[in-house]
């Protein structure tokens, strides 16, 4: 005989006639991915239990997946339940354990309970409760990059600089903040900063930006929006900046050659051609340029961040810190990006030290170049400093020839390697400059190309010369023979 099921919400008869049933699920805080979760369903009734069913709600509620069933008609095993008698009611607790939950386990869960009607065992009274399981995922990675990689050094005016902190894999989105030399940076939200100051360097930020830009932390009060850190003006850096000035207060010129107007080449300016004085340049020379402007005030730090939801439900966050760069003070400054997340016991951190290039260290292959060889000049690192290979941002490398164009007719070549195909003897003794530059400074390394004679080419040339001489002799002999024959006739 079929049973008749009645939902409490649809009952028209008095509750006492059908039976008493209430269902609740104990609240559960957000859990961390990988944890074991126990869902607890409590229900109280004065009737006889019929069944307990747990569902996982999927596809926005359009479908349900049954994950646990207890049928009192066929199963008397109460291993999943605890019962306590209080007055005339029975109090039950049904538990479902989810081991090592993952992001896809997030969502609603329902506990359905059915009891027999006290008046008729052919009727079943149903009640349910639901809970939403929130699974948190800690960030998987954090990194700090420059928004405009391979930027050139500006000798004559200040330029904006942007650090981008990229945090991947967190849910919910983490809180991101920046520190300089271990101290928290008080930032200005970019939406407010742009109203007061429009800067051309905004074009240097990552493009395209993810939608939904919003500050990651509460902005500081207006009275606190002052230039950041007075400690930046420490005696060491001030003395280093003053050391770049001569006695008259002018900038000391450390580079080998001054800047030339754009568009002026060696061909258009005779003073730029090689002269005998270039012979006094040693085989390798390192020189460094410093900015020829002075920052009048400390910069404000502008902050902006955006987030993108990935396919697995986690977030990818881009936090950007922008300020007016001062190479004298910002060189060797330690910037760190720190992330706080409820799934982390301690903040994640990534840090970079701003540093100017320290002179490219060059190698040349083959070591003894001969006429007709292919010569490769490569950057193998940097010359100076105990951490000479740690330069941030990544420098831009350019190659030029002193006093002329490169072998292919161009003025410069960008990259860590310069290739000269089939070098002629005319390039013997020519000087080449490798410039490494980033927004913090520029350094040059000069190297000389020595081209030796190629015995194989000389042997081949001699054979051609001998063949030409023999051909000429044979021609003269033939002409002499013809002349004698004509004279006899």
Can you give me a brief rundown of this structure?
This protein is mainly beta and 489 residues long. It is 12% helix and 38% strand.
Strand content: 35-45%
Q: Extract low-pLDDT stretches.
A: 1-17, 76-88, 193-283
User: Mean of residue pLDDT?
Assistant: 74
**Total beta strands:** 30
Overall SS class: mainly beta
- State the share of residues found in helices, binned by percent: 10-25%
- Give the C-alpha Rg: 40 Å
Supply the number of helical segments.
Answer: 5
Largest sheet: 5 strands, mixed
Q: Going across the major beta sheet, what is the strand order?
A: 1-10-9-5-6
Distance between the termini: 144 Å
The best one-word shape is elongated
């Amino acid at each position: 005989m079929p049973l008749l099921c009645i939902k409490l919400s649809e009952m028209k008869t008095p509750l006492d006639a059908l039976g008493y049933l209430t269902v609740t699920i104990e609240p559960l805080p957000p859990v961390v991915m990988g944890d074991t979760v126990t869902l607890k369903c409590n229900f109280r009734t004065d009737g006889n239990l019929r069944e307990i069913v747990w569902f996982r709600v999927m596809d926005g509620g359009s479908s349900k997946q049954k994950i646990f069933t207890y049928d009192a008609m066929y199963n008397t095993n109460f291993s999943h339940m605890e019962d306590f008698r209080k007055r005339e009611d029975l109090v039950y607790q049904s538990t479902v354990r989810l081991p090592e939950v993952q992001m896809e386990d997030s969502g609603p869960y329902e506990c359905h309970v059915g009891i027999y009607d006290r008046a008729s065992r052919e009727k079943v009274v149903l009640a349910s409760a639901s809970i939403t399981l929130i699974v948190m995922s800690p960030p998987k990675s954090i990194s700090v990059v420059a928004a405009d990689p391979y930027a050139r050094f500006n000798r004559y005016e200040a330029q904006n600089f942007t650090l981008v902190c990229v945090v991947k894999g967190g849910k919910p989105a983490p809180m991101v903040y920046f520190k300089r030399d271990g101290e928290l940076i008080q930032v200005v939200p970019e939406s407010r900063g742009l109203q007061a100051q429009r800067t051309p360097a905004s074009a240097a930020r990552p493009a395209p930006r993810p939608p939904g830009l919003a500050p990651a932390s509460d902005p500081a009060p207006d009275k606190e929006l002052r230039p950041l850190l007075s400690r930046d003006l420490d005696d060491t850096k001030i003395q280093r900046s003053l050391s770049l000035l001569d006695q008259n207060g002018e900038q000391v010129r450390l580079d080998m050659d001054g800047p030339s107007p754009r568009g002026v080449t060696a061909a258009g300016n005779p003073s730029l051609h090689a002269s005998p004085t270039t012979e006094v340049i040693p085989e390798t020379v390192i020189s460094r340029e410093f900015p020829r402007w002075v920052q009048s005030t400390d910069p404000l730090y502008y902050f902006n961040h955006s987030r993108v939801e990935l396919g697995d439900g986690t977030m990818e966050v881009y936090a950007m810190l922008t300020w007016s760069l001062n190479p004298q003070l910002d060189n060797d400054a330690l910037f760190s990006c720190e992330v706080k997340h409820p799934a982390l016991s301690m903040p994640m951190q990534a840090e970079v030290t701003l540093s100017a290039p320290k002179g490219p260290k060059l190698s040349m292959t083959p070591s003894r170049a001969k006429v007709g060889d292919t010569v490769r000049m490569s950057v193998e690192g940097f010359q100076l400093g105990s951490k000479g290979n740690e330069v941030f941002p990544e420098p831009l490398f350019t190659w030029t020839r002193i006093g002329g164009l490169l072998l292919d007719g161009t003025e410069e070549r960008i990259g860590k390697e310069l290739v000269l195909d089939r070098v002629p003897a005319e390039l013997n003794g020519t000087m080449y400059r490798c410039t490494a530059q980033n927004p913090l400074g520029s350094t040059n390394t000069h190297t000389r190309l020595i081209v030796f004679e190629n015995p194989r080419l000389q042997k081949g040339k001699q054979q051609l010369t001998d063949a030409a001489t023999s051909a000429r002799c044979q021609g003269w002999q033939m002409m002499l023979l013809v002349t004698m024959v004509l004279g006899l006739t």
